[in-house]
Amino acid sequence: MRQYTSDLTPPWKKSQPVPEVAAEPGLVVEEPGTGFCGAVIRCEAGTVTLEDRFGKHRVFPLEPRGFLLEGRVVTLVRPSSGPARPTRTASGSVAVPGARARVARAGRIYVEGRHDAELVEKVWGDDLRIEGVVVEYLEGVDDLPSIVAEFAPGPDARLGVLVDHLVPGTKEWRIAESV
Description:
The chain is an alpha/beta fold. The chain folds into 2 domains: about 20-75, Roll (SH3 type barrels), CATH 2.30.30; about 105-179. The protein is about 20% helix and about 30% strand. It is elongated and about 100 Å long. About 10% of the residues are buried.
């Protein structure tokens, strides 16, 4: 024997969970009240703008159960806006999203002058970290020969030195030439 309940609402009219879908640009949905079908081109506070295949734009409110996606009722929501990531590094090279710095390899760039070292780090730091190259501050060139000897550059251990105000005939120039 079949049991009946006091709720005589047909199953298709009963409240069922409606999935929320982010209104990402390019998502094609239909607004069932007007039959307008188009791709999302913009989603702003409380509204979504759709563009149909003829290029016509219509703005609709973002309401629960407001749209059809592939024939199913959905609620469009504003896409979550995570932190914007730069597409280029400070040097202008293409940024590698999610790239982690490599463990420092046998590669160093010694830069004379604190401000110059900070500038090199700021402009090329992202690029150098991906390659595992370390930028180090060089407090003057007087100790450069011992630093180079200790580092022992070779085919597997590259060393670069950036010295400012390198004028032929000066003490700095003679030290750099000796290395």
